[in-house]
Design brief:
The complex is a heterotetramer, with 2 copies of chain A (343 residues) and 2 copies of chain B (322 residues).
Chain A lengths: L3 E3 H15 L3 E5 L9 H5 L15 H5 L4 E3 L4 H13 L3 E6 L9 H8 L2 H4 L8 E7 L14 H5 L4 E4 L4 H13 L3 E7 L6 E3 L13 E4 L4 E5 L3 H14 L4 E5 L2 E3 L3 H11 L2 E5 L7 H12 L8 E5 L9 H7 L3 H11 L6
Parallel strand pairs in A: 2-3, 2-4, 4-5, 5-7, 6-7, 10-11, 10-13, 13-14
Antiparallel strand pairs in A: 1-8, 6-12, 9-11
Helix pairs in contact in A: 1-8, 4-5, 9-13, 10-11
Chain B lengths: L5 H27 L13 H8 L7 E3 L5 H6 L4 H9 L32 H14 L6 E6 L6 H12 L4 E7 L2 E2 L2 E2 H4 L16 E5 L3 H16 L5 E6 L19 H8 L2 H11 L5 H24 L16
Parallel strand pairs in B: 1-2, 2-3, 3-7, 6-7
Antiparallel strand pairs in B: 4-5
The chains are: A alpha/beta (343), B alpha/beta (322).
The structure holds thiamine diphosphate (2 copies) and magnesium ion (MG) (2 copies).
One thiamine diphosphate sits at the interface of chains D and A.
Chain lengths: 343, 322, 343, 322
């Protein structure tokens, strides 16, 4: 298992294998192939972009425009069409180019896709995977850098996953597409270039199961998406002071893995959650609230969160870096928890 | 498109009566307080749902609106279970969890009433996309109101249906009002069918009180869709007998003039007269259908009333497919 | 101050006085007057509905159709138009008939109204008050009964208030309209008939300030909107067992009053938050997470939340009642906190 | 509408050159890595922003798009501060917090570039509503792309502008593509101006590379709006010189035929030739304007480069009005 591919390629491969396996899987989105009806591209069976970041590159040439469908700029339309197609037997995988565009099409998730099965008394099945991307760090400014998986995770009836690495990305995406529910698959756009080992086969990573990425006894750090790397750096630094942090990659934010988190906190007695979302009503608050209820007796100190500030994402590079949670902030926070740790 | 057969005419007459009786009864029952929530009645618009669905099979899909009982009945949903749903009973089409605004039966191709005005457009084109992708000749029909034509979903969905030549028919039920707001105030275009050209698809305005006009226009459009020739927009001029929802005082309705004339028309006797004259229906058969329909609705009410309320644990069920 | 009026009338009066005082205040929404261009109504200068619940009744006859604007069914359009009108000097008060329709127009809040000032480096001012309604209990089923103020409260750059009574409703609405920021004013539709004393004058209730509705030393109960009445019932019942609950009406969910809540918890050592929203990533989790961080040392037991379950709102009356947080559930939860309390 | 004066012609020629030089320079600088993020250049479309804004004062409003530099310049925003904004500097129009996609200057009536395709429509009609409500004769202009015409906001906003007769002009910049997607694929209607009739407003398609065509069509429409006669939709056929954003390989562009002809046209020398022939501009004046423009952009770059980055505490500022 020595093959190393990028996060982006892993996602591409997940889509490819899911499409290969099940003809009912179709993709829809803006420029996910690109160049629809352009003669010279059609002649060469070429896609123009394969998505704005190139994630779906090559899929149209392989599966054709019937299965890799470029849409007009009509998010409510094609996201809702995906709900309709899913309700009637296909397994659509629409791409919402940036999660920031959710304001154009939230109804299809909030009022339709997530509620249909319930409202219809169990008759409907909406096997739909929404791919989107989130995250600051690409100088994309306030309207293209938000992290809104937490808003989506508050909606009953859908699942939301946030992979942190190529291996999970491929396996989770396949699991999402095989899932009979609406699953939001949120990619951190700044991770696309990240390389790691990824098996060539078709495999699934379980939705709803967190992973312990580093074991430790003194402090639990729960992370979402790329915040994992902040935590791993922090754990390294803390280890030098003899403090062993347990790092948990949450992976699924709805429904998140309460058991793994609570067991860890029971062991360590201390918890920091790192979430790039704005600080209110996000997954970090949800975790904190559950731990503060169910593991209260095991806690040795306050429950800490490190999140983005309560501001939009600024454009200037220096401000954007300041906006993002980083290792220094987490270390400072850890210091509040662990007396004998030097600042 | 097939000429109207006797069998179909009987089917149509039964459905029109079922819808009318169903709605008139719900109106009554609502006033007694036995039915909770928001209820939007279809009475007065029977010719549309019936004239359109006469061309559909269980394999064709429809999306409906908040005013969905008529579409449900015309699409073949079980009357007992429908009534039970509106009562919020366990035996309801949706186990009592949907109610009037979310009544649905996917097995019958009925993709749901929809509490969101304009919510049906994208779902309908999604079903049509599925029909086309699977190379079936099934169609999808999207029923929508005049008010819904001003939602962005109208625009996005019809445009996509056009560029992808989807087998879908957009059936507008122009009953002059979106709640209290006149269509003539809310729409920049005089006719809703005028908007079809903005998407390069055919559009026409027809008399939605005339069953045969609907039957023929819908037949043509559905045929076109089945043949892969793309979507059509049909605007049906109609009127609702009751208020926007139960409880509406209807102060805004005009008590005279053109509007009153439209209000006074009744497509059920109009169709009966036509069908009897054309020998598609005998007077006896028509009487008998009327009678059966009354009984069927009575049965539905009894069924609903005698049904149990949902079990508490069902609150937590059907959120996810396990 | 003996005059008692309904919650609905108090809101109507708040709008009326704000319009009276400032000509720049205009209202927009679907059927907020009703019957636009209907001849017989125009002749009598009458509105047809005054909003689906009658909240804006009488304002059109008084201020005319230029100021009380019936819109087409185009939520994104008129909410966005309100942002544009606010950015250019008016003080629009659009009504989103049900907060469940947020999926049709979220962009105007998420990406435009809330971010403009920040993105424009402080140049823009968006003095806009969005009235909407939330809440189960009216048999309005899954798409008309949600409580989404928590989703909105997660967005930086806007304020969100949830009044529980006529007095606060009037004063808060006036404060919201005078506020130079986007304020969401979320009305519980099942409270419209509630009567209480309301002064006839123009007055403001401070946004961001919670109110202690009952003092107590044993347990803090924080509530949002009509959950106040659940808490007051609970407090009565607990009092019979000699337990004194302090009841806090949060009033503002963004930014919520950390000081009042934390001070209370420091006194009582126990916290229950009642929030009708679905349970994940809501205001209850936010409060729990802040208290679990900042008042940890004062806590005598786990932090408890009583929320709606993680399901859509069911139609059937019995299920809907079960869905709503109620006094029995809160009492059971309190019993977990206070050992000597009989179940 | 006024005939084009010498003064206006000089203004126009300067703005067209400013836009071109600004964008060409940003293109260069972007490739060196000094400018971060997503940058969408307006080069090639100068005639539109300039021809339209020539009729506007600081009191009129415009809404722009992700491709907003041209609109900004034509609306009179400061070049130094614009460039500083794109660099993310403290001296920028938005203090470095907006960047290319959110560049704005409300004092100049520029209500912002917008990262949301279709985001400008409702904002523009809101500004127009304000203009009408306050009984001013100010107008609002909404610039939007061919791709944006498929968003629901297009539909909702133009319909409302129509029924309320708002003083707003919808200026479509049809550059054949929304990102890589041809307009001819994405739109059900052949022409975007064809959609105007769906809202009962005038619509026309013009040569968007021809400054005078834009100037005249916009002049008429803006006059109409000022007089309270309601909105107009103008579709301007144009082409962008660069990719969708910086970094785009542009594989989808046709290298021959009609598209190539359009790409090869340049409205700046075309206008110069026209204006000199019509004696609106002397050749010397034109040369001088070209020279000044180059210097002004150089100055802007120097200003931007020498400006400080934002202070850390500004991260937390301007979220709320205190
Ligand atoms: C997205 C959304 N906006 C507004 C409403 C409130 N509403 C319910 S029905 C209705 C009027 C619909 O009018 P129309 O489409 O003409 O249908 P009709 O009721 O006349 O059949 C409105 C505004 C809603 N349910 N959903
Ligand atoms: C709501 C939304 N959807 C999609 C995008 C991604 N996007 C940015 S520009 C663009 C193409 C816009 O095309 P057009 O309107 O023709 O403008 P042009 O770029 O050609 O000037 C797209 C799809 C976006 N920014 N916002
Ligand atoms: Mg209607
Ligand atoms: Mg374009």
């Amino acid at each position: 298992m020595a093959r190393r591919i990028t996060f982006m390629k892993a996602i591409n491969e997940g889509l490819d294998m899911a499409m290969e396996k099940d003809e009912r899987v179709i993709l829809l989105g803006e420029d996910i192939a690109g160049g629809a009806k352009v003669d010279h591209l059609a002649k060469q069976n070429e896609d123009a972009w394969g998505g704005v970041f190139g994630v779906t590159k090559g899929l149209m040439p392989k599966y054709g425009r019937e299965r890799v469908i470029d849409t007009p700029i009509s998010e409510m339309g094609y996201m809702g069409a995906s709900v309709g197609a899913a309700a009637t037997g296909l397994r659509p995988v629409p791409e919402l180019m940036f999660n920031d565009f959710i304001g154009f099409c939230l109804d299809t998730i909030l009022a339709q896709g997530s509620k249909m099965r319930y409202m219809f008394g169990g008759k409907a099945k909406i096997p739909m995977t929404i791919r989107t991307c989130h995250g600051a760090g690409a100088s994309a400014a306030a309207q293209h850098s938000g992290s809104y998986y937490g808003i989506l995770a508050s909606i009953p009836g859908i699942k939301v996953v946030v992979p942190s690495n190529p291996y999970d990305a491929k396996g989770l995406l396949i699991a999402a597409i095989e899932d009979d529910n609406v699953v939001v698959f949120s990619e951190d756009k700044t991770l696309y270039g990240l390389k790691d080992e990824v098996p060539e086969e078709y495999y699934k990573v379980e939705i709803g199961k967190a992973k312990i990425k580093r074991e430790g006894t003194d402090l639990t750090i729960v992370t979402i998406g790329k915040m994992l790397y902040v935590a791993l750096e922090v754990a390294e630094r803390l280890a030098k002071d003899g403090i062993e942090a347990e790092v948990i990659d949450l992976i699924t934010v709805a429904p998140w893995d309460q058991e793994t988190v609570i067991n860890s906190v029971k062991k360590t007695g201390r918890l920091i959650i790192i979430d790039e979302a704005n600080p209110h009503n996000n997954t970090a608050t949800d975790i904190a609230s559950v731990v503060g209820d169910q593991a209260f007796d095991y806690l040795d100190g306050p429950i800490k969160k490190v999140c983005a500030p309560n501001t939009p994402v600024p454009f200037a590079t220096n401000l954007e870096q300041l906006y993002l949670p980083n290792a220094d902030r987490v270390i400072e926070t850890a210091a509040e928890l662990i007396d004998d740790l030097k600042k | 498109m097939e000429k109207l057969s006797k069998e179909r005419a009987e089917w149509i007459y039964k459905k029109m009566n079922d819808i009318r009786n169903f709605e008139d009864e719900v109106h009554q029952i609502f006033s007694t307080g036995s039915i909770p929530g928001f209820v939007h009645l279809y009475a007065g618009e029977e010719a549309i749902a019936t004239g359109v669905c006469a061309h559909l099979t269980d394999k064709d899909y429809i999306t409906s609106t908040h005013r969905g009982h008529g579409h449900c009945i015309a699409k073949g949903c079980d009357l007992d279970k429908m009534m039970a749903e509106i009562y919020g009973k366990e035996t309801g089409l949706c186990k009592g969890k949907g109610g009037s605004m979310h009544i649905a039966d996917i097995d019958k191709g009925m993709l749901g009433a929809n509490g969101m005005v304009g919510g049906g457009f994208p779902i309908a084109i999604g079903a049509a996309l599925r029909n086309k992708y699977l190379k079936t000749d099934d169609v999808a029909v999207c029923f929508f109101g005049d008010g819904a034509a001003n939602e962005g979903t109208f625009h996005e969905s019809i445009n996509m249906a056009s560029i992808w030549k989807l087998p879908v028919v957009f059936v507008n039920e122009n009953n002059s009002y979106g709640e209290t707001t006149p269509q003539k105030y809310a729409s920049g275009s005089k006719r809703i069918a005028d908007r079809a050209s903005a998407y390069g698809i055919p559009g026409e305005t027809i008399d939605g009180k005339d069953l045969m006009a609907v039957y023929e226009a819908a037949g043509k459009a559905i045929d076109r869709a089945r043949k892969g020739e793309g979507p059509t927009l049909i605007e049906c001029i109609t009127y609702r007998n009751y208020g926007h929802f139960e409880g509406d005082e209807q102060k805004y309705k005009a008590k005279e003039g053109q509007e009153k004339d439209l209000a006074d028309r009744d497509s059920i006797p109009e169709f009966r007269e036509y069908a009897v004259a054309e020998k598609l229906l005998s007077a006896e058969k028509a009487d008998q259908i009327e009678q059966t329909s009354v009984e069927d609705i009575e049965h539905a009410i009894k069924f609903a009333e005698e049904s149990p309320i949902p079990k508490p644990e069902s609150l937590y069920e059907n959120v996810f497919v396990d």
